[in-house]
Design brief:
The relative contact order is 0.05. Strand 3 and strand 4 form a beta hairpin. The protein is rod-shaped and about 110 Å long. It is built from two helices and four strands. The protein is mostly helical. It has one domain. The termini are far apart.
Length: 114
């Protein structure tokens, strides 16, 4: 056996050897999984801290998106059912011309316009 070979394991009919270079690679491989978990935990913690610092902005954006979604739904409904915006003024009189109630004019079991 070459002098730089190190006996690793003795079996019934054989022996296993390793070189210093192979031992170094073996150590790297065995420690790689632990390093991966450590790095993953560090990255997750960094992301969590970044998101936490931006929580107010994220929540504000979420509220704005929800409002936009609601207004788009109103617009789509107005388009589909030919709704129009009422004219409102400061006077005391109320005049409704060709008015209709959305619930009354739809079939409540199917949601379709009657």
């Amino acid at each position: 056996m070459p002098e730089n070979y190190i006996r690793k394991q003795t079996l019934v009919n054989s022996e296993r050897y390793i070189t210093p270079e192979l031992k170094e690679y073996e150590d790297k491989i065995l420690n790689a999984e632990e390093k991966i978990y450590e790095l993953e935990a560090e990255l997750f913690d960094e992301i969590r801290k970044f998101i936490s610092a931006e929580a107010v902005t994220i929540q504000s954006n979420a509220r704005m998106i929800a409002l936009i979604d609601c207004l788009i739904s109103f617009a789509e409904c107005a388009e589909a059912y030919k709704y129009s915006k009422p004219v409102v003024h400061d006077g005391a009189e109320l005049e409704i011309i060709d008015g209709r109630h959305p619930v009354v004019e739809t079939d409540s079991s199917s949601g379709r316009k009657v």
